[in-house]
Known about the structure:
Helices cover about 50% and strands about 10% of the residues.
Amino acid sequence: MSSLTVKIQDVFDEPACEGNRNKSPKxxxxxxxxxxxxxxxxxxxxxxxxxxxxxxxxxxxxLIHAPLACEGNSWDNRxxxxxxxxxxxxxxxxxxxxxxxxxxxxxxxxFKAIREIKEGYTPAAIFVYxxxxxxxxxxxxxxxxxxxxxxFAIPVVPVNAPGFAGSKNLGNKLAGEALLDYVIGxxxxxxxxxxxxxxxxxxxxxxxxxLVKPLLDRLGIRVRACIPGDARYLQxxxxxxxxxxxxxxxxALINLARKMEERWDIPFFEGSFYGISATSEALRRIAELLVxxxxxxxxxxxxxxIVVEEEERAWKRLEVYRPRLEGKRVLLNTGGVKSWSxxxxxxxxxxxxxxxxxxxxTADDKERIKKILKDxxxxxxxxxxxxxxSMLSEQKADIMLSGGRTQFIALKAKMPWLDINQERHHAYxxxxxxxxxxxxxxxxxxxxxxxxxxxxxxxxxxxxTEEKLEKRTASAxxxxxxxxxxxx
Length: 488
């Protein structure tokens, strides 16, 4: 049995996945990351999912062992941000051709590419990604990476997640397995401390993590590793010495958090930094876990003091937006942690959530939404484009929050839309992020352009005017005829 097959079965048998908790060992293997049928990996393939998880490690060279198109399709597919290195923004690919494949030169070309990257860029490590083509022709990237690491004295990490293996979510988990097998635990930090934590499943989209880290710094809490947002290779390699962890997106990396707890006794919880109350709760839970692992109990008091101070400041800044947004109806078409955490943050400022998609949400996510909304009719497993358009055109919502793929549905319905997914240009995490979210929703809803686009077009206005004139002329003629009849 191939190593890839073993990994996939292990991911399907993930006991921490909410979909597996009450299943028998036999049915558990069908698990929460059920692969799609070949050709049906809508929303991204396994390779794409692995690249999403690992590319934000910023001082690493990400080498795609494939024809050029694979890298062209996956490069820069998220709005993650870096506070330092820019190497992750450089595309590296072996650019295999038909001749390389037929003549069996692909593994040799991979080894040469690793050497050129090492000599030309001196990265902290090189991640090598298998793809459909190289997996089908049987390239042994593990062996090549092992030989290259010995030859060039640099970590070379194989990421065995070819696209045909399954969905994007499966690729997320296979990337976590690669970190566990080849990266985490390979470097011992020289300064471990009682206040070290890991943040798992945080991608630092539009710099969101930078709105949260100052709060942790004020508490004296050090982020040993944020995986993967704005991460460095050595931070990830030494992440096994953290005392606690917060899981931001369990859909993507629950296997990583669970295995780190088993191997290195790092307790974790799932939380969110979206919304005022969710951010406060996350800070409290982090402090509680650290105290449970031996930190000074005074940390709890410091956390509570900062929570009170930040909440008061945030609510004061939100006063200007609350009257303008209170009672406004919002349709949320997203998934994962945002399906419940953004719902909660919107309701905090008085908005009414008329519906939220839960297609990519876990069972725990759905339970949270039910408790928040108290109406299961607002939960949609999948909202078809026609249904989205119908809800918006019939003005059942005042704005839609979603990803870029559905923005044109809102625009066609002539309704406000705001990007809430990875392509967004604004950070919405933490207390400051909540204020920014309210500001952007306010700008979108009250933008005067919507009143203009709902007006008839000039040519339509001309037709309406002409029809009105014809009706008036006909009415005047009828009136004249009736008058003439009376005179007779």
